[in-house]
Amino acid sequence: MTALLIIAIVLISETVLGFLFSIIAQVFYKKTTIDFKSLFKGFIERMFLMIFLFHNLAPALTFFSALKLATRLKHDEPAGQGNRFNDYYLIGNLVSVTIALFYVYLLNNTKSIDAILKLL
Length: 120
Description:
By secondary structure, the chain is mainly alpha-helical. It has one domain. The protein contains five helices and no strands. It starts with a helix and ends with a helix. About 10% of the residues are buried.
């Protein structure tokens, strides 16, 4: 039962995150469509972090950070945009890592969650 609950929480939170990131992209970049490719990449990143952190492989955070930095080194901000991309990128990564840590917390505490559910 707990596994189904965790899967449901992950699916619901990923759906909510998708809408939130789409809204933020509209504010920062005036996009009018949902970028499913970016949403999927974010989901994969969070699952990568969740799997490695769940197995106590914290160096994966360093690898993840280096990989993300390497993919963004050549990005040039259009004139007059300031640091919008960097802000959007930083906030997105912080939220992704936080959500992955939340998933790991849920996975690590399934027995406690199961006990609470039995009381209800």
